[in-house]
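Why does residue order matter? Because the sequence determines the fold. Keep that principle in mind as you read this record.
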Amino acid sequence: MAFEVVLEIHGVEELVNALETLNEEFIRGLHMKLLHWALAVREYARSLAPVRTGYLRSSIYAEVKSDVKEHVTKFGAKASYAIFVEFGTRYMRAKPYLYPAVQEYLPELERVIIEAIEEAKKEAGFE
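Structure:
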């Protein structure tokens, strides 16, 4: 006695297309959301930076780079003395502005990522 089981799967191509759309929408959406988040962090860091001439404050930047494999957000200041202000020296106490700004906005980062995932799922038709 023999049994035969036939399994037909329909919609595989549609699923693959939806997953590709999900990935593209996620990358695009997350990049934009990270950019808005990074700009908010940058503005907060600028508000925390000590001001003598204003150069340090104006040199604070935020960059977001996104691709298929990773998303990188970079913060810094181009002023040559920025590191000494942030961490201090043996002659000058630290006046941190970058680290506290990032710490303040870290809880919001999780929300930003979750929103990007949810929006990508909707765009790809998974909801």
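Helices lie at 12-48, 55-59, 82-87, 98-124.
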